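Hey, I'm writing a tutorial for new members on how sequence and structure tokens pair up, and I'd like a real worked example in the thread rather than a made-up one. If someone can provide the structure for the chain below, I'll link this post from the tutorial.
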Amino acid sequence: MPGGWLLLTSPVWLVGAILLLIRGGFRGAFRATWDGFVAAFKGIGPMLQTRHELRARRRIKPAAMAAAFTWNPFAYLGRQIDVRPFPPQNPK
């Protein structure tokens, strides 16, 4: 996710993370969900180091990436499938 979008959507990410932890508690998977979050944040350093390289190879514009995302938080929490047709590709 582009850094600017991450900052703009961070409140939504935070609420989503809390809801995932709550859902994990109801499903008996709180500890596994928590451990997943901890592992993700422990591995964030190497991921951020490769960010510059990935940005240089990016072939998609941020707006096109946003169009591919699922913006429905209930679909995300319910792990529902979101199938949409691919947009037409611009010829090179």
